[in-house]
Records
---
Amino acid sequence: MTLFSRVSQDCPAGLAAQRPRAATGRGQPTLGIIGGGQLARMTAMATLKLGHDVVVLERSADAPAATLATHALVGDWNDPAVLAELATRADVVTLENEFVDAAALATLERMGATVLPGSAMMGRVQDKYLQKVLLRDAGIPVAPFLPARTPDELHAAAARLGFPFVLKARRDGYDGRGNRTVRAAEDLHDAYASLGGGTRPLYAEAWCDFSVELATIVVRGRAGGTAVYPVVETVQADHVCRIVRAPAAVDAEAARTVERLATAAAVALGAVGCLGVECFLMRDGSVLVNELAPRVHNSGHYTIEACACSQFENHARAVLGLPLGATHLVAPAAVMVNLLGQSAGPARSAGLDLALAVPGASVHIYGKDRSAPGRKLGHVTALGATVAAAEAVASRCASEIRFGAAS
């Protein structure tokens, strides 16, 4: 049975001085995961398979990963008292998302915990402007970008970049949240205000006229060794990934360029564990790195069925100091289709029986309690002799499942 601990501010002060320990006496290091969503859930599944216990820290007891954890802590992951409790239960701590404040992670490190990725790396990558600076300084090609902290900087950026350009929040943006496309001078004020300009730091980025969006996952071990997954094509709609096609239908040189840039980014960051690398293939054949995610990534969910070792198992291996697994495809092609909420309400699903009757499809339901339009609630993966064949199966299966009140 999973035990839930709700940690409060009256956590004993001496707790912070205790060294981390495994949650059980089996001798294997315990993995702590900050965040309890679907990424933590799938990482926990892979870690438990290796015989390691898992501690999950999340703000609610009904998080998707909580029921899989050896021990689930409920509390604010930026609260020192909660982090102190986590430090006593986990030998190695990793992250499901990049929204945990780097200063909080530094506090956890001072308590004696091994945190991977560490606070120094997270401080560089969770601010997307600083992330772009790091990539540029490492010689990794990115779109032109400029600060837009004030109206004067915004107007200067518009003059330099031209229209359209993309105005972005430096922190806490995902799935299109925190981004605005600015198409003309008269849109500047509304875009700046809508993103919290003046109170929330922003930056501006040149518009990229790309032909296709590509991604890969690079895994870097504690000793510095790397493994790279196949380059995939990601299909976006309304800033949310809908389909992932593996391998991407690009020439070998473009794929090698993405792999090389992803590895260079991981080394420049000093990453340990999975690093999701999103890229643009430009119309002239060049590649720009768009964004980094210092964790397991939606573009790599297909690896559970399609690769020799999934991104989730390889992330656990990397942060626990174990040998990295092979990343090659076990079939010629694979396609993943995200299952998104259609309406707001309880995340009740309908059509699962019909979906499971589709031969060759694998269904993953994340166990979230609430549906919302565009919210990721599951995914379907299918393997095939070709990408088209795999996509036909995955799409057919996914079309049977509905979430929300409309289900």
Note: The longest helix spans residues 252-269.
---
Amino acid sequence: MNNGSLIKKYMDIEVRKLELTDYQSLKESMIQAYDNWQTAYWKEHHIKKLIEIFPEGQLCVTVDGKVAGCALSLIVDYELF
């Protein structure tokens, strides 16, 4: 067996801004990544708020149209603390 047959070939890999329509796929990805945590995923209203406030800071990687990973960012005003 050659090594090429052991590696799944992905047709479409993309890095882009996260959209609220990605939520279900994102949730599934988080549950798989953190399967030992009961509340391993962010709630939809939290993701929606992040996208509303700082859309350019919320990124995702999709593989064949499904979210495989993400980077969620916050802006903190340290003067308030």
Note: The beta strands are 13-17, 58-63, 66-72.
